[in-house]
Design goal:
The protein has one domain: 3-Layer(aba) Sandwich (Rossmann fold), CATH 3.40.50.300. A hairpin with a 2-residue loop joins strand 3 and strand 4. It is globular. It contains 14 helices and 9 strands. The protein has 294 residues and is an alpha/beta fold. The longest helix is centred in the last third of the chain and has 21 residues. InterPro entries: AAA_dom, DNA_Partitioning_ATPase, P-loop_NTPase. This is Cobyrinic acid a,c-diamide synthase.
């Protein structure tokens, strides 16, 4: 089982679109996929589940927030991911919740007190909650995808500690690319601190940077517009790996995914533009499979 965090500090860069359509295309190719929505905005959840269904069926006791709350409240036994996962179109999903943002405050309370040894133990325990839970289902999936929030919260760090890889979708503009090196540095620092506290080699983590996926590309004459090509070149000069596959902007096609609870690659359209969009997502999936090795 390979675990991948999909993350960018900047919101609105197509992160959820990449996660949902990667998951859908991987399932279409016969892979066993679990997606975990860690973003309180719940956009990934609503890419698969209609809002009314989530509200009536899953909001109270079938979300990642409910799982964290059970740990914080000392519930015994804590529900397993298997208890919470739902299935849509062959994809297993662990839904998010608008209240997930409050979980960080509760988890942080246990990190700041006690002796140095207690601090070390609390640090490892707090940041490895998801990692340990995934070990219970590692034989059930080929890949787990985290849709991370646009921050470096305790919940986000939980995803990265559990991950073998992380991927950064980014719109090719100043604000979206600005924080990529900062994000990589923060991941490196988290890894160093976590590994410093580990008592055995088997606990050591090493999430690998897969690269940047250029999203919301404005295509002209079959290639990105000049301004976006400049940002791509700047990233390349900074030795930041960029996926060959790029995803164009198309508000009409992508906007309908949450409304129908169906990712783009599962929808039925007849236009030439739709076929081009789907081909880009298929190419991205092929490249992703090659990099991750599934």
């Amino acid at each position: 089982m390979e675990v991948v965090s999909i993350i960018n500090y900047k919101g609105g860069v197509g992160k959820t679109t990449i996660t949902a359509n990667l998951a859908a295309e991987l399932v279409f190719r016969g892979k066993r996929v679990l997606v975990i929505d860690l973003d309180p905005q719940t956009n990934l959840t609503f890419s698969f589940v209609k809002v009314d269904e989530w509200t009536n069926k899953y909001q109270k006791e079938r979300t990642i927030k409910y799982w964290f709350d059970s740990i914080i409240d000392g519930v015994s036994p804590v529900p397993s991911f298997e208890d919470l996962i739902i299935e849509k179109n062959g994809i297993n999903i662990l839904c998010s919740h608008l209240g997930l943002i409050d979980v960080d405050i509760e988890l942080a309370a246990g990190l700041s007190s006690g002796t140095e040894r207690q601090h070390k133990n609390n640090f490892l325990k707090t940041y490895s909650l998801i990692k340990k839970e995934l070990e219970n289902i590692k034989d059930q999936y080929d890949v787990v995808l985290f849709d991370c929030p646009p921050n470096f919260s305790i919940v986000t760090k939980n995803a990265l500690v559990a991950s073998d890889y992380y991927l950064v979708p980014a719109k090719m503009d100043y604000l979206s690319t600005l924080g990529i090196n900062q994000l990589r540095n923060n991941v490196d620092n988290l890894v160093k601190q976590y590994n410093k506290y580990c008592s055995t080699d088997s606990e050591i983590i090493n999430p690998e940077f897969l690269g940047v996926v250029a999203t919301m590309i404005a295509v002209r004459n079959g290639e990105p517009i000049s301004a976006q090509r400049n940002y791509i070149s700047t990233l390349e000069r900074s030795n930041i790996n960029i996926f060959d596959s790029m995803i164009r902007e198309n508000k009409t096609i992508y906007a309908s995914a949450p409304e129908y609870g169906t990712p783009v690659v599962f929808q039925s359209h007849s236009s030439g533009t739709y076929q081009e969009v789907v081909q880009e997502l298929e190419n991205l999936t092929s490249e992703f499979i090659g990099k991750v090795g599934i």
